[in-house]
Every structure is written in structure tokens, then in C-alpha cells.
Amino acid sequence: MSLPHAILTALLEKPSSGLELTRRFDRSIGYFWSATHQQIYRELGRLEADGLIRALPAEQPARGQKKSYEVLPAGRAELARWTAASQDPKPQRDALLLRLRAAAVVGTAGLQSDLRRHLELHGKQLAEYRAIEERDFPPGEDAPHKRLQHLVLRAGIDLETFWTQWLTHALAEFEALGDDTLA
Amino acid sequence: MSLPHAILTALLEKPSSGLELTRRFDRSIGYFWSATHQQIYRELGRLEADGLIRALPAEQPARGQKKSYEVLPAGRAELARWTAASQDPKPQRDALLLRLRAAAVVGTAGLQSDLRRHLELHGKQLAEYRAIEERDFPPGEDAPHKRLQHLVLRAGIDLETFWTQWLTHALAEFEALGDDTLA
DNA sequence: GCGCTCATGTAATGAGTTACATGATTGA
DNA sequence: TCAATCATGTAACTCATTACATGAGCGC
């Protein structure tokens, strides 16, 4: 039940059309809550039906025509309620760790190259986060909403840092073990 | 498409019934791939229909009767294929970070106590992982499958360490901001 | 027999993914 | 006018979650 709230947040930051939202999910918001345009359109329809958002007038609502939405007071209230509500952390799901555990049983053949690929991807993501940090969060900033946003970015940076370090360590272990242990 | 492979791995480690698998998912395997008993029974049915596992004879297969499964050669082959196949990392999804971003817009009221709760939960998980490490991975161990298992556990420990550190940092920021900024 | 736990399931719903469809706009 | 791109959607399917159902065995 988080996608509608992700959309409400995005629309509060700036009223947008479905495609604009999709692009923003591909960038900043999608860093910790991804969504496809199909999900977004479906959810926009529901949110409008529930009276939490409304289409901005001005544009005619026809297929192929841009249609922008803004958040209504009921939507803001629902987002505030959800933000404050206690929620349990979702149990982890990580396919790569699962594959490592499987490899302990059926052999490590083929895994090493994918570990390298993941290391590269996480390294890129880390670099991207760091660039955003340098651009958007100069030292000495202290507006509350800025500090909260920085906190979120920090989590992204630290997570990617963890992955690059762990993958580097894992690859070193693989070097020591050889490429097809237990096969 | 990871649940069937998680089950194959678990069954290769030790043939089990549905409920035994459920318990093992609650413990070790579920640390990075959780599943409920309903998912597990459904998936066991599919895996059996696909000829990747089979029910051990000996026990009669009636409702309320224990039914154990073992992996067939085709199942082991499928697991090896999946382990070696290249897979993209799944985009992150974290509701807590989303809530922080929402809080930057609608206010931080109520969030602080949930951050504390999460910190406590992650602290407990970290302690549990460390206990497992001490119990199952004494220094100087070097059997390949042991080293792979240790690598996976290390990822869990480092991830929980990241969360406890980040949450501690976040709470310090909240102290500095006051409990209901921007409300 | 009654309540409890063990063990295996079914049903309904919701969330996410993949593939495809359709109209509008723009530039060659 | 044709192709490409922008923009909004539908449909079908898989995966996950929640709630409930059913039978077996055991202790009292």
C-alpha cells in the first residue's frame, strides 16, 4: 500500500501528468520506490475516484492529451496519516544472496561474472548519488525539508557503499576458491 | 521467479515437509527470502507437477499427514541453471525512506517513534546474526560451502549494521529538528 | 467429548509485470 | 504522407498476502 502514497508525495512536490510522474519515478523517487507507467496510470485513476487528487482543468481530457493532477486536501490528510502510522519493516528479499546460498549446494559456476556486473552497477549508482549530493546539498544547508531529503539520499549512498564493499569482498573470496567450486 | 529456487535450495540442504520448510523459511532462508506456508504449499505442488521434486514414499499422502519432498535430478539442474544465469538487481523498495520523503512535505509528526521502533528491530536482528556467526562460523574455517554461507551471513550483518547506524543518525537529526517540523 | 496443536490446504484479493493498443504531435 | 515519439491507457498474467477450512493426533 505504498504506491498511492509515493504518488501523493510526488504530486505535492509538483503537480504532474502521468508521464511526468513516470519520468520522476525513473529518477529520484524510483530510487527507493520504482513504478511503471501502467501502475501509475491505474493508481492515478483510483486516487481520483477516491477524491484524493483531481485533474487540473484547462486541458481537455482526451486520449493522447496531457492530463495533470493535483492533490486535494483529503489526499494530503491521507498522506500525513500514512506517514505517521506505525509500519513493520518488510522482510528482506534479495535474489543474489539466495543464489549464493544455492551456489553453496550446486556449485559456483557462472556466478562470478554476475557478481562483477552487479559491482559495476552498484558503483555507477553510488557515483550518481554522490553527484546529486554535491549538486543539491552544499555544506551548511539547514532548512528542515532539505535535511530530511539529505537523510534519504544518505541512506541511498550508504546502501550502495555497502553493496560495493560486500561485492568486492565476495569477489575476493571467489578468487580464493576458484571459479567452479563444488560443481 | 525466486521462490521455487529458494525451495529447491532448502530441499537439497535437507528433504522436508511443507511445514518444516515453513519453519526453515522463518529462520535462516527467510532472512533474505521470506515466504508464508500458503506460498510454499502452492509452490511445492507446482514443483512436483513439473517433475523437479517428488514426495518421499513411506508416508501416505492424506490431508493432515506429513508429506516430505526431495529434489530430483531435473530440479538440481534447474537450480544450477538459475544460479548461473545473469540477473539484474531488482529496484529497491523501501517504505520507510518513502515516508521520510513524504514527511519533508506533510510534516514529521509521529515518525520519530516509528524510527525508534525500527532501530530496535534492526538491533535485535543484528544481534541474532552475530550470535549465529559466533555459533556456526568459528575462525579458521575454510570448507568452500562454509565460506559461501558465511559470505551470505556477512551481508546480513553488514546490512543490519547499516540500518542501525543510519537510523541512529536519522534520530539525531530529528532531535535537532523537533518532533513535528513542517506539520 | 473438548480444546489444542500439527499439518495441509483453498479462496479471494491486491500488487506488480509484460505485452499490447490508440490517439496526438512533430519533423523529414 | 510516413515514421517516430509523446502520452494515455487496457488486458492478461504472475506473485504475494490475508483469511479461512479441514483433518489428525494428543492431553485432559
TrEMBL record, chains A, B:
Residues 93-174 form the Transcription regulator PadR C-terminal domain. Residues 7-80 form the Transcription regulator PadR N-terminal domain. InterPro entries: Tscrpt_reg_PadR_C, Tscrpt_reg_PadR_N, WH-like_DNA-bd_sf, WH_DNA-bd_sf. It holds the Pfam family PadR. Gene3D superfamilies: 6.10.140.190, Winged helix-like DNA-binding domain superfamily/Winged helix DNA-binding domain (1.10.10.10). It comes from the Bacteria. This is PadR family transcriptional regulator. The lineage of its organism: Bacteria, Bacillati, Actinomycetota, Actinomycetes, Kitasatosporales.
